[in-house]
Amino acid sequence: MAQMDQQAREQLKLLRRLEKVISETEFSWSLCLVGEDQSRKLNELAAELQRPFSATGDEKRIVSGYSYWGIEPAVNWQRACTDPNYPVMRDGIETFSRRWRSLHSRHSDRPYHYISLGPGTGEKDAVVLADLQRANPEMYYVPVDMSAEMLRLGLRPIKSLPFFRQFRNQLLPVQLDFSVEENVAELNELRGRLIGDEPVLFSLLGNTMANFDEDVELVERLSKQLLRPQDRLLVEVATASHLDDRMAQQAAREYETSWVFREFVISALRQNTDLSVNMNYVRFEGVVEEGRSLVIKVIYCNQSAEDLKIVLPNRSEVHFPSGDTIRLLITRKYQLKALAGALAKAGLFVESEAFTQFQAYERARRFGMDLMLLSSSEAGNGHDTAARDVFRRPGT
User: Fold this and answer.
1) What's the DSSP call for residue 66?
2) What value, to the nearest 5°, has the Cα angle with vertex 263 and ends 265 and 303?
3) Are 351 and 202 within 8 A, CB to CB?
4) Which residue, 137, 282, 337, 375, is the most exposed by fewest CB within 10 angstroms?
């Protein structure tokens, strides 16, 4: 026991020294907890690329987190988010503050913390933090992503906040794949030790949930493992007013017209394989997921007449015959009523939401973005909590 106490004292001394170093320098230091075994993630990526032949992008694939894993994908993603020819993300970032502030109508003096699952380029988190920190200067901010490069890029807008110099000792980036159930359990343990019973706002912004094959299942799993009655989950999704083939094709064209976005989706192949990439082999397909959403798949197809061999960084080889495909990305635009029903079945309820419609393509046919504040079924309609005060429905 004495030895354990001594170790704890030494660790605390180290942390205090690091805190002092960070607070006394203008250099952009930040501490980061690394929870990922990078060699294991590489093997998982290899396994996904060794799946069997498919001419439709339904076997070999780059699953969601790996699209942003590494410096080249992270930098190209940041470039894509500012591309005028990629309106999905650009418009979402530019209109986010209006949606957020329509939800954030009241404040509370109780401590409130923010855990961001996939912080992206950081602009949206900066908007959220500017309001939450004003109400609770002692709050913690925990951005979580499996890509260390994305965590670092996402901190840039945060560092421009006027209170950042005093706030950076309350910042704890965590490199972790939150789509893995065991990892979420560890994140929950970390949250308990760091924050205790104080209310937490979790977020899944930027249409992130749409990039997972099991999208609603992911949100359900996160809520069951993380959400307590006093916590809330902020989810942002892309939306479509109609689910038909014309809208599906228009949705695919939104992505296809951006050459910068094309560079982003191909980055994971360039970084993790020796494939000589042909940008003309990238295709964008939009289909209707009946009664639920528009699904957009970005696919790389071997259109050459030759069977190719791809070598991965772990020196394993992938057979890539003519006509075979690799799915580079999947995303969706949801029908709101259907999504709310699916979330309710998963035990999540929309307490309030803020919706933005973008330019119409044909009369009433529109795409948009919706920001939803979700609570778990255990939250019920009991006494007000700090989260309810902060995010009370307008007009109540």
Assistant:
1) G
2) 75
3) no
4) 337
